[in-house]
Amino acid sequence: MRPPRYLVMRVLRLRASPHAVAMGVAAGIFVSWTPFIGVHFIMAFVLSYLFSGNMVAAALGCAAFGNPLTYPFIWGTTWEIGHLLLSRKDTLQGHSLDLAQLFHELRFTELWRPVLEPMLIGSIPPALVTSVILYFATFYTVKGFQGRRRAHLLERARLRLSVPMQETV
User: Fold this and answer.
1) What residues does each domain of the chain span?
2) pLDDT of residue 67
3) Taking a C-beta distance cutoff of 8 angstroms, is the pair 102, 115 a contact?
């Protein structure tokens, strides 16, 4: 439980407005659904910048949501949703596709239609839903945390100022 708790505390302690932190997290989560793994951070930074989000929160959102433990579930979900939205049957039935060879030779045109297109189309609905939900959850959590922290610091300052100074003899 320590790594998830660390990520949550890291997000809560960012010195930015609740909107900026929440938008950054939402941007990171949104792009984690896309099949473009090598450029998730760049995409998250661009989205975060366009919507006045925090870049560190975007990176933390990417790292927390899109990782080797979650990618198999993300890919399976986006694949199925993409095929459903495109009204396709399994286009690879009876055929094999050597992904390593296609990537090695950089033949993305042959990779687009059978793999990337359904995954990209299928990533949009869950990306929208999860990023909107987590935007609001993060916004209100950060807002509450910052309010409690500000009240605590004010109370400490008030106590420090109310203690009478020792007289020097």
Assistant:
1) 2-158
2) 87
3) no
